[in-house]
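We emphasize that the prediction below concerns an isolated chain of 265 residues; any contacts that depend on oligomerization or on bound cofactors are therefore not represented. The input was used exactly as deposited, without trimming of termini.
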Amino acid sequence: MADRRIFRFFTPVIAMFLLSCAHGYDIKKPVLQSDNLKINCILYSPRRLVPGKKYPGIVLNHGGMKGAEFPVRAWSEDLASKGFVVIVPQFRGQGGSEGQFEFARGEVNDSLCALEYLKSLPYVDPGRVGMAGYSLGGLVTLRAAERVKGLKAIVVMSALSDPVKFFEGLNDTPERKRRVERYMPEIEEASPLPSLDKIDAPVLVMHGELDGRVSVEESRELYKRLKSAGKDASLKIYPYASHGLLWNQAPREHALKFLEERLFP
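Result of the prediction step, given as a token string:
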């Protein structure tokens, strides 16, 4: 039984890897300047670029505090194999980049810096660019989308979209409560909820019902507020999924369809 569970867990990952190998992609590692910091990036592109052809681009913002981990890299490879040019900025203080963690402040600058670089590439169509983010990268994506116009699609997966609610949920010990209270001004500043009216691109919000790290209620509230602001928003909740949506085939397929419909001619 344990062997079967392991097989079911790794099957979508193996399939994604084999599909990427079959179609092919190339990887480069540009280093960009963001706020005078050197930010390492990973750039994925289709292996055989057609001369003169312009490809759609995606900035993919990773989650966590360790840089781009395997699920984000694997999904980037898969997207590149399907005709997208994808750039993953390794946020400051992560993945060998200079600087330190700033909780969705400087990281937003890193994401926007990667966006401008992506749009400057001669084989990318600057009029067909989107942004996606997972977990903390979802928060960065929302904050970045508030500051830039012209994005054609936004995808946020398991997004930490309400930092205040998230950290208030960590007040389970006196020490944690004191720390949250100390940093609450910065936490409130990081929230995208007060400025959702500035987003001008269609947004796909995705979350797992069983997410034990970021509550699914954050995405439900995000969707509700986007709709109240008159935005083009859709919500997909996966009853069987936890925080790691990128490990599941259905969410990846739904996100791919959403991006293809809005970024391919």
